[in-house]
Write a structure and sequence with these properties.
Layout (H helix, E strand, L loop, with lengths): L1 H12 L1 E3 L3 H5 L11 E13 L2 E6 L11 E5 L1 H6 L5 E11 L8 E14 L7 E2 L28 E2 H4 L9 H6 L5 E9 L9 E4 L25 E3 L17 E12 L2 E6 L27 E11 L6 H11 L5 E7 L14 H15 L4 E4 L16 E6 L4 E3 L13 E2 L3 E2 L4 E2 L14 E7 L7 E7 L13 E2 L6 H21 L4 E7 L7 H10 L2 E2 H5 L9 E3 L2 E3 L2 E5 L8 E4 L18 E5 L14
Parallel strand pairs: 1-2, 4-6, 7-9, 11-13, 14-15, 23-25
Antiparallel strand pairs: 2-3, 2-5, 3-4, 5-6, 8-24, 9-10, 9-12, 10-11, 12-13, 14-31, 15-17, 16-17, 18-22, 19-20, 21-22, 22-23, 25-29, 26-29, 27-28, 30-31
This protein binds 2-acetamido-2-deoxy-beta-D-glucopyranose (4 copies).
InterPro entries: Endo/exonu/phosph_ase_sf, Endo/exonuclease/phosphatase
GO molecular function: catalytic activity
Keywords: Signal
């Protein structure tokens, strides 16, 4: 083919003349002219910023995979040309990225011989979804073996394999095929909070998946929403606002397609300004405790590094009292020791927990007791010196520990004949290396004060974090889901413990809840369900999959916090995720997680409601 041999010849010579922008971009991620000098590139100036010029080809090809846009990196040149000029220039083709885990941006460096051919030409943005196809909604890259959450992670790199772009199939390919182009996104909604630079994720008026009732996009099975794009730094030097939130309506946004900081982004002409603000009001849980075994309420809340003098402690109290409506039992995570994040050897958290309890009592008159086990100093991960741990808060007028026998930090809890627990509460397998730098699961057994003698087992978990994961839109495929293998070992240990209880009593009431740092459809949790025999409470009560979220990260509302239950807890179960934090802007969020509340019938066979089988 003529074009190919021309490219080959150019590569041999180390330079090439009169190459089109589409030829420079090629139909893959890495330019065929990488590190070559090209001459007489011709394009219309569609936009400029303080770093350079955005060009659009005046001689487009017919191939939707080859972008007709190109960034020319040079601040001086940006001052010498105007939007609407058609120019020619020579320069070096460079693949640039600021971090080894990012996808490269194709750009021209060291432009010379810049000539204005004509001025005042019309500059019309491509409307996404009208002048282009729709962004694909499910898959990010052809290299994602097993999908976006495939394991093992990082078995391939976009930069080294340099796959051919298939913009109709893969989200990253779609945006790469528009890199450098001048585009308009119609009817944009914000689906994230701003990061420290004011960047936000948005969706436009094209078909999307995972749309939740608040306007965000929820991660679904194998689908982490590649149809979205980041809005980055405005071209005119203005700044995006920092007080915006998921669900804000932004109207139309025009700018250029770029890639940096691990995601495709549109650099808008000017800063965002919501035309309609999303509500942040979320109602209280819709059900209350019955006070006896027919309807015990259970809350779950990662309170994000709670210490005695945390400014957010009174706000956590307000949530527990007015939104969770003082559940009978609360699974807390990220409770810090009495000296908070001071790295001083203190591990006791009785001051933190007593402070929380007394403020709840002041606000509601309701008295909570607590049960927890301090970790060994700095052995459970999290903020150094903070010694975060899980704790149970419980109303002793409704629920009490069954045969309390507090375990020590290193005591290994066991399922005894009954079944009952050796330590109550006690930590599961605390010496296993699977829990190094991670929170040990806290198992407990309870009895209701009124209504039944059947005991109720709980395990409060906070699995190892995802910190260190790579961008879903980054170079490594599938992206690194940091800690995924370790979480699978952790969930297996907890699941074996549950299975042991169920082998003694298949009708046992068991609830495993907390911050799993993982999505229900991913390995650690599918393994957990299959070994333990427990069911995701979302499934039991039938919560709409798009409303299953407790966290907001990058473009996705997602569920890291879960409740898993045994068969005995299915009957009459209720469950609600309270979006008290994911709907807020940065200043408004009390914790980075949303709390959830459930209600269970623990009466078992003695329940008034239970019909004897006939
Ligand atoms: C992918 O890129 C990373 C970071 O540059 C590198 O460490 C790794 O070896 C690469 N892996 C493959 C499969 O090319
Ligand atoms: C949205 O809220 C911000 C404050 O966060 C306010 O300045 C702005 O006027 C509001 N916009 C609209 C359209 O109500
Ligand atoms: C739950 O209790 C609160 C406070 O007593 C009350 O305001 C609310 O109406 C109750 N909700 C239901 C569904 O009974
Ligand atoms: C916390 O525990 C210590 C040691 O047992 C005790 O001296 C102190 O009074 C407790 N503080 C609170 C607020 O319960």
């Amino acid at each position: 083919m003529a074009v190919k041999s021309f490219v080959a010849l150019a590569a041999v010579l180390g330079s090439a003349a009169a190459i089109s922008i589409a030829e420079i971009n090629g139909d893959r991620y890495i330019s065929p002219f990488k590190d070559k000098t090209v001459t007489d590139i011709k394009g219309l100036v569609t936009a400029t910023n303080s770093n350079g010029i955005f060009l659009r080809s005046t001689e487009p090809d017919e191939n939707p995979a080859t972008s007709e846009g190109l960034f020319v990196f040079n601040s001086a040149a940006a001052k010498t040309v105007k939007v609407g000029d058609i120019i020619t220039l020579d320069g070096l083709v460079v693949e640039y990225r600021s971090n080894a885990n990012y996808i490269y941006l194709t750009e021209i460096n060291k432009p010379t011989n810049i000539k204005v051919v004509s001025s005042g030409n019309e500059v019309k943005p491509l409307v996404i979804g009208v002048d282009t196809s729709f962004p694909p909604t499910k898959d990010f890259s052809s290299l994602d073996q097993g999908g976006i959450f495939g394991v093992p992670n990082a078995v391939a790199n976009i930069s080294s394999i340099n796959p051919q772009l298939q913009p109709d199939l893969y989200g990253l390919d779609f945006w790469e095929s528009l890199l450098g182009e001048y585009v308009t996104i119609k009817d944009a909604y914000q689906i994230s909070r701003p990061n420290n630079f004011g960047d936000v994720y948005i969706r436009g008026n094209w078909p999307v998946t995972g749309l939740n009732a608040h306007g965000g996009l929820t991660m679904l099975e194998g689908d982490a929403n590649p149809e979205v794009i980041t809005i980055g730094t405005p071209l005119d030097g203005s700044k995006n606002p920092f007080d915006t939130r998921m669900g804000d309506y932004l109207g139309d946004i025009t700018g250029v397609v770029y890639n940096d900081f691990g995601s495709y982004r549109l650099l808008p002409l000017t800063h965002l300004s919501p035309l309609k603000n999303a509500t942040t009001d979320f109602p209280a849980v819709s059900f209350n405790s019955t006070g006896d075994c027919l309807g015990i309420t259970v809350g779950d809340y990662n309170t994000e590094n709670l210490m005695p003098d945390s400014p957010h402690l009174p706000l956590v109290v307000d949530h527990i009292v007015n939104k969770l409506r003082t559940p009978d039992l609360i699974f807390l995570q990220e409770v810090q020791d009495n000296s908070g994040n001071k790295n001083d050897g203190i591990v006791d958290a009785n001051v933190t927990l007593t402070t929380l309890a007394s403020k709840i009592e002041e606000a509601s008159g309701i008295v909570y007791d607590f049960a927890e086990i301090s970790p060994i100093n700095n052995k459970d991960g999290g903020e150094p010196g903070g010694n975060i741990r899980q704790a149970y808060f419980y109303r002793s007028d409704v629920l009490q520990l069954y045969k309390p026998n507090l375990g020590g930090s290193l005591d290994v809890n066991e399922v005894l004949d009954g079944p009952e627990l050796k330590y109550n509460p006690g930590r599961i397998d605390p010496l296993n290396t699977a829990w190094d730098s991670s929170r040990k699961p806290l198992a407990a057994a309870w009895k209701t004060v009124k209504g039944t003698k059947k005991i109720f087992f709980t395990i409060n978990v906070h699995l190892v974090s995802k910190g260190g994961s790579t961008s879903l839109s980054g170079d490594l495929r599938p992206p690194v889901n940091q800690g995924v293998e370790k979480r699978t070992v952790q969930t297996s240990i907890v699941a074996e413990f549950v299975a042991e209880i169920l082998s003694q009593d298949p009708a046992a009431n068991i609830l495993v809840a907390g911050d799993f740092n993982e999505y229900s459809q991913v390995d650690p949790l599918t393994t957990f369900s299959s070994i333990s025999g427990l069911t995701d409470l979302d499934e039991v009560v039938g919560i709409d999959p798009v409303e299953r979220y407790t966290y907001l990260f990058d473009m996705n509302t997602e569920e890291l916090d879960h409740m898993y239950v045994s068969e005995g807890l299915h009957r009459d179960a209720k469950y609600e995720h309270l979006h008290l934090n994911t709907w807020q802007n940065n200043d408004g969020q009390v914790s980075d997680h949303d709390p959830s509340v459930a209600r269970f019938n623990l009466c078992g066979c003695s329940s008034k409601k239970t019909k004897k089988s006939n």
